[in-house]
Amino acid sequence: MHIFWITFSIIVIDQITKQMVLRSMYVGESIALVGDWLKFTFTENPGMAFGITFGPRGMVTFLSMAATGLIVVYLYRVRNLYKPYRISIACILGGALGNIIDRVFYGMLFNDAPLFAGKVVDFIHVNLWRGYLPEAWPLVGGKYTALFPIWNVADMAIVLGVVGILFFQGAFQEELMREQQKSDVEDADVTEAGASEGADLAAPEKAARPEGSSQE
């Protein structure tokens, strides 16, 4: 499937940029690009978005891998449907795999940590807002954060993919319905052809039966 080239390209770009950060910056270092609004700030995220963690070490990694497996299955199932929708899913898949590589291997390669205990490398810092999140928000309520949080190319691909799915959902559903209707028509034609063939085979047999013959 050519669509997987998009996924592969995202993974390659994501990993190249992370390696550049790992080799040229130290954790916590910040380089201003556009005033205080856009910076490169090297951070390591051990959890999910906003640094949320739960369960034993490696739990986030295993959940991410399971979710990614479901994405692969779903992408295969819609492989012949609306292309922009599939591209959006491929972006999400590339981003998910990019961050999974960090979680699985980076701890062992760079921090002498066990396999599956790595941290995601974040460095793209867009400083739109800083403050405390409302206490009523589950999991992240009361935390001091910046919008958008520091992220990476993989995160950008995931966000782009989600936006694409929302935008192309209507067109995808319309094509899905057309394909379903086409399949129903083809099934009906096959059934009708089978019934017609059966009737054609039965007609000579009936004609060959002697007149007046019947079971007593």
Describe the structure.
Strands 1-2-3 form a three-stranded antiparallel beta sheet. It has a two-stranded antiparallel ribbon with strand order 4-5. By secondary structure, the protein is α+β, with helices and mostly antiparallel strands. The protein is elongated and about 95 Å long. Strand 1 (30-34) and strand 2 form a beta hairpin. The chain has one domain. Helix 2 packs antiparallel against helix 3 (83-110). The longest helix has 56 residues, at 153-208. The chain has helices spanning 4-24, 59-77, 83-110, 153-208, and strands at 30-34, 38-45, 120-126, 129-132, 144-147.
Detail the topology: elements first, then pairings.
Elements: H1 4-24, E1 30-34, E2 38-45, H2 59-77, H3 83-110, E3 120-126, E4 129-132, E5 144-147, H4 153-208
Helix pairs in contact: 1-3, 2-3, 3-4
What is the element string, with H for helices and E for strands?
HEEHHEEEH
Describe the biggest sheet?
3 strands, antiparallel
Distance between the termini: 66 Å
Protein structure class: alpha+beta
Count of DSSP helices?
Answer: 4
Mean pLDDT figure: 85
List unreliable stretches of 5+ residues: none
Helix content: 55-70%
- For the record, the count of structural domains works out to 1
The counted number of beta strands is 5
Q: Radius of gyration, Cα only, in angstroms?
A: 28 Å
- Strand neighbour order, sheet with most strands: 1-2-3
Envelope shape = elongated
What oligomeric state do the depicted chains represent? single chain
User: In percent, how much strand structure appears in the residues?
Assistant: 5-15%
